[in-house]
Amino acid sequence: MSVKFFTNCNVVDVVNEKVYAGSVLVDGSTIKEVGENLACPEGAQVIDLGGKTLVPGFFNCHTHMCLAGDADPKYNETDAQLTMMALKNLKKLVNSGCTFIRDVGGMNYIDVDIRNEAAKGGMVAPDMQVSGKCICMTGGHGWSMGREADGPDDCRKAAREQLRAGADWVKVMATGGVMTKGVEPGSPQLNEDELRAAIEEAHKAGAKTCTHAQGMTGIKNALRAGIDSIEHGFFMDDWCFDWMKEHNVFFVPTLAAMYWIKVNGTEAGIPEFAVRKVENTFDAHIDTFQRAYKAGVKIALGTDAGTPFNTHDKTAYEMILMTRAGMSNWDALRAGTLVSAELCSVKDTLGSIEPGKRANFAVLAKNPVEDIEAVMDCRMTVVGGEVLYEA
Ligand SMILES: [Zn+2]
Questions:
Q1: Does residue 178 surpass a pLDDT of 90?
Q2: Using one digit for the tens of pLDDT, what is the confidence trace for 281-299?
Q3: Number of domains into which the chain is organized
């Protein structure tokens, strides 16, 4: 096992809201010691970070590793093409400081195979949890890449199929969405009893569940059915926030997904129906985010990477968007690290720079607590103690 001494850096402590000049001692894949006056043990490899800032590796809890970020995705690639796209995307994630992803909508179980291969080591990839195919109603949002299911029994079977394939999460579609033609974000899709059947199966197997949910009726259906995280959540009221706090349900707003569609528009080739849906919901989404933050709902970081112009090298931009919407820099940094780790049930081993935790971190040129834009300037990424990227 190799011992590495990362030194001459500012360490960002997201637990105690502290930034201090210090060093991080890594033994194999684990952080052994962290502190201001650490001595370098004999034989350790010294990595001088030249005064840069060391932060916990970022999480992206809403990715689609097989999607490229095309303006108007066609869903006609072969499995070989999708696999190569996924490998390119995983590299982009790592190179931008992202060390953990929750992939929530794969294609043909390529995500499961890649997770299994990555776990063997030797790949440039973040740590990951995957969900296999999303479960949607026939013709519902995501149908072109998901598993269509109708009625509670079929939803139960669909969930069991994902678990059999090796999914860590089961993703269900509670409402319409932006990127599927002919469905509206506000309209409910899988019913409460359909959602409950799939969620029950996941929970029985020890897996967690997340839902694409944008309109209020579908969001409430999913919450009552026992969902663990709400993705997008354009329209939520206080009832939703109270339920989420009481039942430990997380909010993954994916502000980036709507932002990149809005700023690029139809002139960049994004379908008119998608741009129109974003225009209609953008303000409500920001408003919901602000109210959820104020209400104390747990907010985790996901970008929906793979949607138009929302490429896999922009995980950290979500933190910038969160602060523009009123979140503090510290809370945005925690959303991208510790809170996301909690959502993925890995808080004991990831999400902060502490002895005993897995050595996943990013080295930034500047301190993001002072200027959040610094999250986009990653100079080194370490996953499991291995330096996978260096600028
Ligand atoms: Zn998505």
A1: no
A2: 999 999 999 999 999 999 9
A3: 2
Same structural domain for residues 223 and 372?
Answer: no
User: Which distant-in-sequence residues (6+ apart) come within 8 Å of 164 by Cβ?
Assistant: none
The encoded tokens of residue 334 equal 């925690």
pLDDT in tens, 116-156: 999 999 999 999 999 999 999 999 999 999 999 999 999 99
Give the CATH number of the domain where residue 45 resides.
2.30.40.10
Residues 233, 370 within the same domain: no
- Cα–Cα dist 331/325, whole Å: 12
What's the whole-number average pLDDT of the chain?
97
CA 11 / ligand 1 centre spacing (Å): 32
CA of 54 to the centre of ligand 1 (A): 29
Rg of the Cα trace of the chain?
20
Judge if 266 and 363 occupy the same domain.
Answer: no
Q: How close is the Cα of 53 to the center of ligand 1, in Å? A: 31
CA of 192 to the centre of ligand 1 (A): 20
Kindly state whether residues 25 and 127 are assigned to the same domain: no
Q: What is the CATH number of the domain that holds 145?
A: 3.20.20.140
According to the model, what pLDDT value does residue 309 have? Answer: 97
Q: Where in the sequence is the domain holding 380, given as residue range(s)? A: 3-56+351-390
Helix 272-295 and helix 255-264, axial crossing angle in degrees, nearest 10: 140
- Identity of the residue numbered 278: V
Q: Mean pLDDT, to the nearest integer, of 96-123?
A: 96
Whether the predicted model's global pTM rises above the 0.85 cut: yes
List CB-based neighbours of ion ligand 1 within 5 Å.
304
Same domain flag for 177 and 229: yes
Question: Is the separation of the CB atoms in 127 and 135 below 8 Å?
Answer: no
Q: How far is the CA of 385 from the centre of ligand 1 (A)?
A: 30
Please say whether the beta carbons of 75 and 358 come within 8 A.
Answer: no
Assess whether 292 and 220 both reside in one domain. Answer: yes
